[in-house]
Write a structure and sequence with these properties.
Helix content is about 45%, strand content about 15%. It is an alpha/beta fold. The protein has 2 domains: about 100 residues, Rossmann fold; about 150 residues, 3-Layer(aba) Sandwich (Rossmann fold). The chain is globular.
Length: about 260
Amino acid sequence: MIVYAVSDATGELALSVTNAAVRQFKKEGVPILQRTRVRSAERTIGVVQEAHDTKGCIIFTFVSKNLRQLLLKTAQDMGVLAIDVMGPVLDSLESFLHVKPSDEPGLRHDFSSSYLKRNEAIEFSVKHDDGLGMDTVRNADIILIGISRTSKTPLSIYLSYRGYKTANVPLVRGVPIPSVLHLVDPAKLVGLTISPEKLADLRTSRLAKLGVGHMENYANIESITQEIKYANRVFQTLKVKAIIDVTFKAIEEVASDVLSSFGWV
């Protein structure tokens, strides 16, 4: 059971995301192997074959659209789980910026203040995903809070690519919220909400993809309604900056709503 962190560049982002994700599971000794500078079809297929042979999975950050598609297709054919980290972000940004991204990995960057700020924001957001790093969460520019499946993680990553240090904290009914949230500047807090019906659909689909037929209360509409009411009480208690409804909205739309609430767009 090996997790491969695969990249067509240095692999730092792939490794950071993989480490952050694996830490969330109470399972000791999950090996993570890096495969960096994978820039040819032959090497791409070879990595998938390696994962197949070792019964592993792949988390990858390719900027090349052709290689992304090749890896996903090869993985599907071989029955290997492959998770595309960079692709959805690039696709969303392409739509948002109305310009195509470069397919060249490892481009030389102008080390301007904006570039350094963006890299710092991305690193911060990865380290403060899903309730991690609460000891330094007050250093965030934006703190997203919401119940499960309200787009906290993808929104955090998207905002970090815009240069904003973004943390996200899950709200779980019956579990006390982290005490530090009572101490942070409420002007940094953004609550995410969603319609019960849409959330039930999302969670039902999630369970199906995981091969789990039923999980008590997780996709139950009545339970979800109570979770949303609980979240709204938390938002009121913490005096959050804004409450954003993510129902039927793309990530870039939600990000625009968040930034608008701060007066940053």
